[in-house]
Specification:
The chain has one helix and 20 strands. The strands form four sheets. Strands 9, 11, 14, 16, 17 and 19 form a six-stranded mixed beta sheet that branches. Strands 10, 12, 13, 15, 18 and 20 form a six-stranded antiparallel beta sheet that branches. The chain folds into two domains: 3-103, no CATH class; 116-237, Jelly Rolls (Sandwich). The chain is mainly beta.
Length: 238
């Protein structure tokens, strides 16, 4: 079955606003009426085969790929699989099977603070004109994070006391602060990191107020005029 995914990618310096998907393959065109050029597969593994019957949708600034897994052939017993999906710098579709390889049992939209790291592109919600940037080989980062913008990771489980926050960031401009808050973007402050200008990615950290339970974590950027941050990943440590 063919599905037209009319998506205008305004955050990339390319003009390929139209996608057409079928099975696990997809095509791109500059015109919704075509002609379309086959671009390859949307992903591999995890039952991403011609019977996957893929669908895609946006939610709170995140793009998702959902498909069916045939549990027992030739019987039509099916399960649904969902993962984050990205457009790389060339406009190609990348289903995040890296997330599934690490956290298949966990599922999207929820996280555990004890993970070795949480990739920035696995966010649940963003505020501001924040953009994904990168490719499947080198990974993705969030860019164009400006003063007042925030990134939400919903349902983060702190099943033990974690006293340190670490993140890999870069900053263009005079400086800024990255706040770690819970519940809302103006909720209780767990900690904050002072950022200085550095166009190369570096690890930054701060101490956290002790916390246990499951809460939404908001990363709020407060930057000086003209400052822009990029975020690669974050993690919590004892």
């Amino acid at each position: 079955m063919l599905r037209v995914l009319w998506i205008k990618i305004t955050f990339l310096n390319i003009k390929i606003p139209n996608y057409l998907s079928w099975g696990t393959s997809y095509a791109k065109s500059k015109n919704i009426y075509g002609p379309y050029e086959c671009a390859g597969k949307v992903g591999t593994g995890f039952s991403l085969n011609p019977l996957a019957h893929s669908s895609f949708f946006w939610w709170k600034g995140q793009f998702y790929h959902i498909w069916c897994r045939n549990v027992k052939l030739p019987f039509k017993f099916r399960e649904s699989i969902i993962s984050y999906c990205h457009f790389d710098d060339n406009g190609d579709v990348v289903t995040d099977t890296n997330f599934l390889e690490q956290h298949y049992a966990n599922g999207v939209g929820q996280y555990n603070a004890s993970w070795s790291k949480i990739e920035a592109e696995w966010y649940y919600e963003i505020y501001g004109n924040i953009q994904k940037k990168g490719n499947q080989k080198d990974g993705f980062v969030l860019s164009n994070i400006k003063d007042g913008n925030w990134i939400r990771f919903a349902n983060v489980t702190f099943d033990k006391s974690l006293k340190k926050f670490i993140s890999r960031v870069s900053l263009t401009g005079q400086g800024g602060i990255l706040e770690i808050r819970i519940n809302t973007s103006k909720g209780d402050l767990l900690g904050k990191v002072k950022l200085t200008s550095n166009t190369s990615f570096e690890d930054v950290s701060c101490q956290l107020k002790e916390f246990m339970g499951k809460k939404d974590v908001f990363l709020v950027f407060k930057g000086s005029k003209g400052s822009t941050m990029q975020l690669d990943w974050l993690k919590f440590q004892e």
